[in-house]
Amino acid sequence: MTMNYSYIENEIYGYMRKNKVFCYLIWRVLSNSKDANFYMFKIRNYLTDLTVKDDFSSVIKTVTNGFFDKKFIFAPKSHEGRYVESIEYINFVVARLNAFQYSDYVTDIYSMLDYLRNDVIKKTCHYKYFDWLKPSDIKMCKWAYNYLVKSKALTKTEYQDSEELYLYIVTGFYLWQSPQDEKDKRYKKLLLARNERKHRTTTKSKGSVRPKKTPKDIQLSAEARTKLTELALNYGVPASEWLNSFIIDEYEKMK
User: Fold this and answer.
1) How far apart are CA 168 and CA 155, in angstroms?
2) What is the mean pLDDT of residues 10-28?
3) What's the domain count of the chain?
């Protein structure tokens, strides 16, 4: 397989420079042997490479010298730090692999980086996960983080500020190795919980103020009740909670 490495480097490194989420994702994959092995295996399947190969992490241990080689701590505290550290690590690993004549793994690395960039762009445009979450909103970031940790979609981590927490949430959900339909369901539940939280916060801030007129009872047709039940089951929440969240969402769109 012939690959233009310089072109890939320019494309990947340029995107890492301008996109903090993608840069954080690459940094996480490179610093976690489990994620690196998973995506290396995934790209080989994607390229229908049926060659039996050792795990990427095992090969890295083979070609590096624990005493003389540079130590990569993977603990930068800024976007620039993660960008520089990731590129230095990629260049270091590529040089060591070439020195030990593991050129096929070099191809795998660049293929993985290219795949991740294209996949992230595609899924970001299609699913628009967390487009409502802002790095500057530390309260909402903490709430989303705690919710996803509790629901087992994320693992606990340490973070220095709201931006890093935001990046961890977005990339962590992407790296969560579950089927797409499971991700969609979990994300829908997250949105419902967020809307319910917003409703409680709004109600609390208004105190005892109540609208002058409220319908005592909402009459639904049998067909509407059946469809409401099916919608609630699909989202995995009570029917009243789903209806409440739907009304809040539609009202927000109207404003």
Assistant:
1) 10
2) 95
3) 3
Task: Say whether both 138 and 230 belong to one domain.
Answer: no
152 shares its domain with 234? no
d(CA 60, CA 30): 11
From 81-85, 208-212, 246-250, the region with the lowest mean pLDDT: 208-212
- Distance, in Å, from the CA atom of 75 to the CA atom of 187, rounded to the nearest integer, reads 29
Contact 243, 228 (CB under 8 A): yes
Q: What is the pLDDT of residue 255?
A: 62
Helices and strands (H and E) in the chain: how many: 11, 0
Q: How confident is the model at residue 217 (pLDDT cuts 50, 70, 90)?
A: low
Shared domain for 60 and 141, answered yes or no, is no
Is residue 51 located within the same domain as residue 89?
A: yes
Candidates 96, 94, 23, 98; CA nearest to 66 is 96
The region, left, alpha or beta by phi > 0 then psi within -120 to 50, assigned to residue 128 is left
123 and 52 together in one domain:
yes
Q: What's 129's DSSP letter?
A: T
- The mean of the pLDDT values for the chain is 86
Q: Do 90 and 148 reside in the same domain of the chain?
A: no
Range of 238's domain?
223-255
Q: Which residues of 158-194 are buried (b: 16+ CB within 10 A; e: fewer)?
A: eeeebbbbbbbbbbbbbbeeeeeeebeebbbebebbb
**Residue 175: which of 6, 15, 27 has the closest Cα?**
27
What predicted TM-score, i.e. pTM, was given to this entire model?
A: 0.78
Same domain membership, residue 74 and residue 91: yes
Whether residue 206 is contained in a domain is answered as no
